[in-house]
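Milestone M4 deliverable, item 7.
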Amino acid sequence: MGDPVIEGLDVYRVGGAVRDAYLGWPVNDTDWVVVGATPETMERRGFKPVGRDFPVFLHPETHEEYALARTERKSGHGYTGFTVHASPDVTLEEDLARRDLTINAMAETPAGRLVDPYGGLADLRARTLRHVSPAFVEDPLRVLRTARFLARYAHLGFTIADETRALMRQLASSGEIGHLVAERVWAETEKALSEPTSAAYFRALHDCGALAALLPELAGNERQLDTALDRLDRLPAMLEANERRRWRWARLVEHLDDETREAIAERLRQPRAYRDLARQAALTRWLWQASALDANGVQRWLDAIDAWRRPERVAPLVGLLQREAPPHAAAVARGWAAARQVTPQPLLEAGYRGAALGEALARERRVRLAEALGTA
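Output delivered:
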């Protein structure tokens, strides 16, 4: 039985839902394009308008998005510099033509008939990321999106078509990349950090010259960049899936100094959680690079990561040590277990107060650390 809300409308499932279905991946979100309709038609059928920049509506029951077919014309810089034209005379093929990659420019009728005017299915089967049209160069965000799709699918054997790489280099050299707002750059980067092969995102941006414009602190030294990208999957064991993004970012920038890391964070307007973990990873880097550990050094590290007030930070950072220097990880775990047994209560009963209490706590912890590390 058909859906009475869309009955009589010329509607097509589009974009990621079609792509992922043909890949055999789960389809979580479905977007639709409506051809030949007006906003008034949609509202009469009970659709709720939600589009700010172009006509998008929510189905009254499924709450899936239905957008009126539209075209775009370049009218300024950046990904926002477009004039949108949505009207009943825009065809499905014209709507699909404005999309970035052929694998994202396929459509299906509700009955499952494929509409593929730009060869998306062939590229999907050939594991190729290819631009739909030369209009690719009008939107610098497509450089980041293409790199992100590579990060998603590289483990399946996908590559970027040579002609698409050429357009990415053209966009990077044109200066258009510099017109992207920080929020969009970070949004794409954060998504890429969740993808199966996140290093591919940064490598693709570096290869086309975009990384030098967006993250020159990383692009300046190719050897350091390669080393940093190799660290992205050397993460603590047993991380929740939603934590991997923060840890990958921390590993990417842990070799940079505090001032440089903070400058990047400010420029990209990163959330505080990313900044804090990057700093903790940088501090932990000192531990795993040390030839030997002593009580003073481990205590400075525990103080620096605020371990006494935030003890939950220690285990995952020790997990990071485990990936880089297992003997150091074992030693720090022993030291932490011993030092955290020191409590203020006996010292309070002995009459310590204020600064004297803090100094006594530190001394006692250092003694326990030295004993556990075998350096007493």
